[in-house]
Amino acid sequence: MGGLSYGSARPAVAQVDLATVGQYMFWLMYRNVASDGLVFDDPVNPGVVSAPGCVLASPSWENSATHVTQDYVYHWTRDAAVVALELAWAYANGTLPDNQALIDYVRFSQACQASAGDFDRASFYINGTQRPWTNQTDGPALQTIALLAMYRQLDPPAQAIAVRLIDANLNFLQNAYPGQTYNLWEEEYGYSFFTRSVQLRCFQAIAANTIGVTVPAWLPDALTWLISALESHWNGEVYASVLPAPTDYRAPYDPNIDIVQAAIYGAESVTDPKLLATAAALRAQWADPGSKYFYPVNAADSAAGLGPLLGRYPGDVYDGDTDQLVGDHPWALTTANFAELYYRVAAKIRSSQTVAADPLSAAFLSRWG
């Protein structure tokens, strides 16, 4: 046993059952959803205790491990909505035994929306009160998408709350959607491709809803405007993440993985040639040994038939644990979203029996797998 270590283990890729792995991953995610039976204490703010339906971004907090200075024991509207979509899917498919987690999410969202402060505050304490943070207009849109997805799975009192939340979100978005916001990574302020994409998906879902939510008179014009606004992000090579393009120490900010995430969580088509051109540039950025931003781990993984791993944007120095702002590294969630893009493109090809061949998408399609 002396020579056995974690590092000596290798995945048997051909034997991986993604459906089985997915079940384990779901419950790892679910352990961060607060309930009456699973209650969290805020480790940084004494006396603050989680309310049911709160979704912790991460269980890590300052000084929880050596040199950790970041605190993520908070509830983000955007992140929670993404989790809520998974909860709705899990209940519909029998993974969750009941709908209590969905009801808790709706009630906690109500508490957050009613808390004192700005309507589009992105992050909350785990008791549902606002914390000092940036405002982001993707949150109300993603929350609306989640509420529409789970509506028929809720009991009547929760359904009534959900409709009120949706109406309030739409009332806010009516004036917010043409404007600027802090972006997905909470670093840059401007016109965000990701935000515009999730707002478009939200408005499309409202236009098609069959649960009785009133479609506002302003919504058709908003749909047309957002489609045009998204096209304005094309710079001839890739979709720009934020306009105007950042010129600070983070530049270049593109290619940025949040463009791919706009196709996973927003309305951007996974077969849009411009999206696939951006995706190809993202892959090359971190997987091509000749790239300035090449990840060495991708060389080792490629030799084993794995990868590649992807990050957020070129030269990203945020590590999630400290404020040192050094180094560059891949992210699990962005890599997972990129992998999902492949699955969605494959599903489109299978269902349509056609390949959307285009000079812009050629680089992506030629590196399939």
Account of the protein in words:
With 369 residues, the chain is mostly helical. Helices cover 44% and strands 3% of the residues. The protein contains 12 helices and 5 strands. The protein has helices at 18-30, 77-92, 100-114, 138-150, 156-176, 193-207, 219-231, 258-265, 273-287, 296-303, 332-352, 362-365; strands at 75-76, 123-124, 181-182, 189-192, 242-243. The strands form 2 sheets. A 3-stranded antiparallel sheet has the order 3-4-5. Strand 3 (181-182) and strand 4 form a beta hairpin. The chain is globular and about 55 Å long.
In short:
By secondary structure, the chain is mainly α. It is built from 12 helices and 5 strands. Strand 3 and strand 4 form a beta hairpin.
Descriptive key words:
single chain, 369 residues, mainly alpha, 3-stranded antiparallel β-sheet, two-stranded antiparallel sheet, 12 helices, globular
The dominant shape is globular
Q: Over all CA atoms, what is the radius of gyration?
A: 21 Å
The helicity comes to: 40-55%
Strand order across the biggest sheet? 3-4-5
Provide the residue-averaged pLDDT.
93
**N-to-C series of helices and strands:** HEHHEHHEEHHEHHHHH
Instruction: Specify the structural class.
Output: mainly alpha
Q: Estimate what percentage of residues fall within beta strands.
A: under 5%
Give the end-to-end Cα distance, rounded to a whole number of Å: 36 Å
Regarding quaternary structure, what we see is: single chain
How many separate helices? 12
Uncertain spans, ≥5 residues at pLDDT below 50? Answer: none
The count of strands amounts to: 5
The profile of the biggest β sheet is: 3 strands, antiparallel
